[in-house]
Write a structure and sequence with these properties.
single chain, 99 residues, alpha+beta, 1 helix, 19% helix
């Protein structure tokens, strides 16, 4: 079965640090995941992907934290789907930066 991901909610809030907090809910074939990402216009060596995502937290359908990154990996993906979600979120901001 193919994994499908659809963003159902996306809110942006300005962070005191100058970045944007993104509050994202994504429906998948495994249930709804909730992600919080701190994203900056400019990348850094501490961020994920192209360096723009400096913090990323993903909560799984069971309400448990299944991935945590804060300028370094804190909690590795707790499932294959959590890893796919992290890749999906990072790619979302990599693509956004290229436009």
């Amino acid at each position: 079965m193919e994994n499908t991901m659809n963003i159902t909610y996306h809110r942006r809030t300005r962070a005191l640090s100058g970045g944007l907090w993104h509050d994202i809910k994504v429906n998948t074939t495994n249930g709804e995941f909730h992600a919080f990402a701190l994203v900056f216009e400019e990348g850094s060596k501490y961020g994920i992907g192209n360096g723009r995502v400096s913090k990323l937290s993903i909560v799984g359908p069971d309400g448990l934290n299944c991935y945590e990154y804060d300028r370094a990996p804190l909690t590795p993906p707790q499932s294959k789907m959590a890893g796919l979600m992290a890749d999906y979120i990072v790619e979302l901001f990599d693509i956004h930066n290229a436009q």
